[in-house]
What does this fold into?
Amino acid sequence: MGKYVAGVDLGGTKIYTALADDSGRLLAETIVATGAGDGGEAVVRRIAATVAEVCASGGSGVDISALGIGVPGPINPATGLVDQAPNLGWRNVPVKEILQQTLGVPVLADNDANLAALGEHRFGAGAGVRNMVYVTVSTGIGGGLILDGKIYHGVSGAAGELGHMVIDPLGPLCSCGRRGCLEALASGTAMANRARELVAAGCGQAILHKAGGRAENIDALTVAAAAAGGDGEAIDILKDAGKALGMGLANLVNLLNPALVVLGGGAMNAGRLLWETMEQELKVRALAAALENLRVVPAALGKRSGLMGAVALALRGR
Amino acid sequence: MGKYVAGVDLGGTKIYTALADDSGRLLAETIVATGAGDGGEAVVRRIAATVAEVCASGGSGVDISALGIGVPGPINPATGLVDQAPNLGWRNVPVKEILQQTLGVPVLADNDANLAALGEHRFGAGAGVRNMVYVTVSTGIGGGLILDGKIYHGVSGAAGELGHMVIDPLGPLCSCGRRGCLEALASGTAMANRARELVAAGCGQAILHKAGGRAENIDALTVAAAAAGGDGEAIDILKDAGKALGMGLANLVNLLNPALVVLGGGAMNAGRLLWETMEQELKVRALAAALENLRVVPAALGKRSGLMGAVALALRGR
It folds into this structure.
């Protein structure tokens, strides 16, 4: 069993690669553009190159004994294929096999949200917990489940799709084509969309001001900045998102009775108000038995949750 | 390892006990009234007596090597206590230990909905499936999760509470004090309540007729009978319940990606319309990845789901 492994967090825009030792300490990191438009083969070559690069910057004589990689789509546990990764334009890509042949070491692949959950579980906020739900609130809302100490995949690797939980059957249209999904109510995109609608209707001026007067620059953090300045419209947006998030988490904890919910993703930086409203609604909506042993905490690894999950996976696969 | 075990399905009104051989074949069954009002000790004595009775009717010389029992409340996996069983008036009752001392054989206890799931998984509709959700639609709505081949309990034994998933935040009041829970929209009680409200408002005459003119006799099956006769009000009640159920199942399968959902409970006998509306809404609301490998089927063991789960548990504990 070698001392070093590599982890890759493959996203639609960036490839984030690191070299780690057997305690999970990162020795070198690199970020390059994915260039998804160049096609799957080019992306896989780029990944192999970043792995070689972190090995080289780790000093001479560094060989890895395994590679872990997170991909932005479900991996079918039966076939090992990336069924579908819309952000990469991939369908049925055997990423694991190609990389294994190229690099000559065992390659372990999983969905990126599952690996973010694993990363937090092994190295972050969830260390030592048996049942944990990781939720990422970003442009979309996704998640990963650690149940009885392991990543839970479901029958075809699609488990953990928290973002499309129906919260309000008559709510706003979601990117999935349905109405009132959690993602359509509480994601960063949902908050920004609502703010832009206000601006289009001639309101939302405080939010627009925080975006430098350009509606296209509005995001969850702009809304948060306006709310921090006391703007009522921005406060309403954050509160409604927090409420929807609390309802979604209540459904989740009633069903899975986890010891821990870890919340990550850029939109969770939209400030205290979002968090407080979420917690309040969760307490109102969840059953006493589910709340009793529950903690809800922010992710500890920030942008490295997925990368550290890839490292954890590689360490298991040595 | 002995050839025989006993299983007990302990309910708020009935104690259902059976003797089974090591293949799960039932050799004797008995049902007695729980008499919960007499207190915990009396109920436990009654259980011990029913076990002796099924052993005796199984022929002379029948000794059991283990007892499995399902109780109507969560069992804390850490303490083994029945935390709370409102239907029995129990709190922190060490049912497992008392029965073990009385009967002198290993006693294995679990929540009744979990055991109904296990019964269907081992002997019924879910045989051979790795990830399965059991949902019971009765006076309330409950469920049990079989994940990666085992009952999933969560951190304090409270997992599987499907009934209090929020489906419509502004919907009708639930028995739990919250609004718009699945149970408040799609349980047998919810359907009956809505029919009674119609009657109280001077409508719902076809349903009232099927209940023999007595509003207090209205239940889900009365509504189903009126719907079968073409009554529009009854049809609406079934359709709305089916729709809520489909939404709840969509949330469930998006999150857990099971291979199978098994639907049991008396209210699922309310006919094709309930089932069809549920399936339709599930298909509209669930993600393609979650639907692809999913089957939704009726429970195969009827009233014996929980009992057979208790037998399965006992067989494991020999």
